[in-house]
Amino acid sequence: MNAPTGVGLGALVSVLLPVLLLGTVGISAAGQTATDTVRSTIEEVIDILNDEAWKKPERLAERRALLERVIGRRFDYEEMAKRALAAHWPKLTCAKRKEFVALFAAFLSATYADKIESYSGETVEYLNERVSDGYAEVRTKIVSGKAEYPLDYRLLNRAGKWYVYDVIADGVSLVKNYRGQFDRTIRSSSFDDLVQTLRKKVEEAKAPKPAS
Q1: How far apart are CA 155 and CA 99, in angstroms?
Q2: Rounded distance, CA 162 to CA 20, Å?
Q3: pLDDT band at 10 (very low <50, low <70, confident <90, very high)
Q4: 40 pLDDT more than 80
Q5: CA angle 65-111-92, nearest 5°?
Q6: What is the DSSP string of 152-197?
Q7: Rounded CA gap, 172 and 95, in Å?
């Protein structure tokens, strides 16, 4: 099961990104546009990454936890998990759904954490947004040197606040990518096997890396 590839900042916000919360929390200011929501999240994350105080080796774990909280407040992991499981979601009990949402969030966080922290000055251009019936798509472009990477965010509106539920990197949907992987695993084995696979990957990602 491979994660989609992406540049530093692009992978950062796709998490992810990610981690993880078991429920979603909206941004404090109601009435913000979808673009405002994406922009404020990216700016807050970049501020943390650029803050010299957070770059001290002894504070890296603390910084990662802070990044996870910031990103997590803007992402609806339950909606992402529901769409990633698609037809398999209705078959789960409430307990299994809750377990999977938490695990999926942790998996995204573990998968993209290193990419988030590899940010090295890429800039973000906000192109436009489309809004229809409580859903929005915010189109952005990541500029890194002479290279440009399209990165679009899909959001839904809950009680006047916007939450990201999918990220499209170079035309590839994060949710759709995992939907195909998860469906193949469940059909060839079982949902429980998918859970075990994700849990193993989270444990491997969090394991201490050998000194180079």
Answers
A1: 23
A2: 17
A3: very low
A4: yes
A5: 95
A6: EEEEEEETTEEEEEEEEETTEEHHHHHHHHHHHHHHHT-HHHHHHH
A7: 31
DSSP calls for 98-167 = HHHHHHHHHHHHHHHHHHHTT--S-EEEEEEEEEETTEEEEEEEEEETTEEEEEEEEEEEETTEEEEEEE
Helices and strands (H, E) in the chain, number of each type: 7, 5
Dihedral sign from CA coordinates of 115, 206, 173, 78: negative
Q: List, for residues 126-170, the tens digit of each pLDDT value.
A: 999 999 999 999 999 988 888 888 999 999 999 889 999 999 988
Distance from C-alpha of 178 to C-alpha of 14, rounded to nearest angstrom: 13
Q: What is the torsion angle, in degrees rounded to the nearest 10, for the CA atoms of residue 111, residue 115, residue 116 and residue 122?
A: -150
CA atoms within 13 A on the CB side of 171: 0
pTM, entire model? 0.77
Q: Which positions ≥6 away from 132 have C-beta within 8 Å?
A: none
The dihedral of CA 201, 164, 176, 191: what is its sign?
positive
Question: Residue 11: pLDDT above 50?
Answer: no
HSE-CB at 38 with a 13 A cutoff on CA atoms is 31
How far apart (Å, rounded) are the C-alpha atoms in residues 149 and 154? 17
Distance from C-alpha of 169 to C-alpha of 149, rounded to nearest angstrom:
8
CA dist 88 and 97 (Å) reads 10
Distance, CA of 13 to chain centre: 6
